[in-house]
């Protein structure tokens, strides 16, 4: 029997009917998932193996799978452990004597095949007693406990774990693996290797909406062909351009609909240089094997600060006073002007922006209530209210910080405006669809609402210019003629700090995806990552296979990969789409095309990428 050891670990974060099994085998790199797949057709939905190889002659496969019926449990017991894995159940007669020590801090359960987390608790517990405090004697000098960790094992596929030695994550220019122009400060040996797609000469990038130059530089430094435009494009021009490119970078205005994306035959990745991703058909993109990245919080402080400025400006009617004086009118009044101290701010959506706003507003003496669909921890003395109605009735200022979803469309309509306090204020720095603007115009004209600040609109111009007219939105004139209303051109996140941070963050995600296939941070794909291939591994190839999440795929894929040594592999699924990444060795350049074609020919294929 070839096995050295086996163990089971059970993870409390797994579903009740899901099990994780890990095994170490000294047998030649055995594609356990392949065996699993070939013999049984569990769907990756119910069986998603993650396989990590830790050395060339030993492998640590970890499987998460569900067992919804006896059949699957039986399979686990009899087939996986005893037959094809060549592994031993504890207490088995042929348990080898060579090593019974778990390799790391592994858990050996009391009963084979029983999840200790689900085992019945003891019926009697020792009664709790408090022991008196006592001094702890210092340990004798020297290593009290040594952990043999020469394999650097971790079950957490994090950046830190997967970064190769010498790779620096913190400083971008220092050479993030797969991102920099391969400028590594350490020795060449062990340094991350810059991978290239086998079937693509130049990576073509289209950047729209004036994304920050820091980001543009990162992409150019990779040698990509970058086209940079200051505005977004009308749909027909967008379709013409998107046909050719592998990467597109946008902000909030460019609508990447199913129609537009269906022309994007070479597109592999979309970068949203902003927080919101509602402008992209995320599901359709995933179904085409197109990953989408954004910058989830880099401009959130800027939005929170803008909102603070607007609350004070509305309370003091600053916009009107300033306009009057620009036109030569001196109008020194205090009627209807207030301090914000002691007033109540109602925040709708207590996420990255809403929660920062909460802290800033409280520090200026406001009371904070918030409404969110999630039960969230309050910061400071803020208080979560159970319903939107409670918030509407209790706040002097209401600020919206929700994403655009079907539920948030017209979230503030005539009925909600009516429920607000007389003389209260509304601020919308989220998305234009969240407020019914004609209803708001009516509420301001009637005197119900004392003022409003709007940064976002149902239709926004593609670029800067004289476009904010009734042609864009039919009520524009009415809005412009109201008193105490601040209108800004979607500048919530438009600060130097936010834009350069977003530029760097999103460009790095794009480069990592293009060069290494890493999906960490993707908003529409499962998150998959492996440590970088290094210069020490010249004949290694990274295979990325994005496929339909249907039964039997891994068996077929691994049958194709199985002619080579699979050094490491990870797969995960999200909805209908699954993402497999595998590093295989001993691949001759001439074999790559065949490998790629074999994967392409599988009916489950969404997209195949081979990087070497
Ligand atoms: N004006 C601008 O320039 C900017 C606008 N935004 C917009 O602000 C939105 C919020 O940004 P973040 O705070 O970073 O997002 P976030 O995702 O951190 O927070 C959103 C919060 O809204 C909550 N939420 C979702 N649906 C809800 C509903 N129906 N009712 C109540 N709460 C709901 C969520 O649970 C979450 O806590 C973005 O989605 C984006 O559309 C973001 C950045 C800049
Ligand atoms: O700065 C932009 O273009 C968009 C900002 C925004 O709305 C977002 O980040 O979601």
From TrEMBL:
It comes from the Eukaryota. SUPFAM superfamilies: ACT-like, Formate/glycerate dehydrogenase catalytic domain-like, NAD(P)-binding Rossmann-fold domains. Its EC number is 1.1.1.399, 1.1.1.95. Keywords: Amino-acid biosynthesis, NAD, Oxidoreductase, Phosphoprotein, Serine biosynthesis. Pathway: Amino-acid biosynthesis; L-serine biosynthesis; L-serine from 3-phospho-D-glycerate: step 1/3. It catalyses: (R)-2-hydroxyglutarate + NAD(+) = 2-oxoglutarate + NADH + H(+); (2R)-3-phosphoglycerate + NAD(+) = 3-phosphooxypyruvate + NADH + H(+). InterPro entries: ACT-like_dom_sf, ACT_dom, D-2-hydroxyacid_DH, D-isomer_2_OHA_DH_cat_dom, D-isomer_DH_CS, D-isomer_DH_CS1, D-isomer_DH_NAD-bd, NAD(P)-bd_dom_sf. The keyword Phosphoprotein applies. Residues 542-612 form the ACT domain. The keyword S-adenosyl-L-methionine does not apply. One of its GO terms (molecular function) is 2-oxoglutarate reductase activity. GO terms for biological process: L-serine biosynthetic process. PANTHER family: D-ISOMER SPECIFIC 2-HYDROXYACID DEHYDROGENASE FAMILY PROTEIN (AFU_ORTHOLOGUE AFUA_6G10090). This is 2-oxoglutarate reductase. It comes from Lepidopterella palustris CBS 459.81.
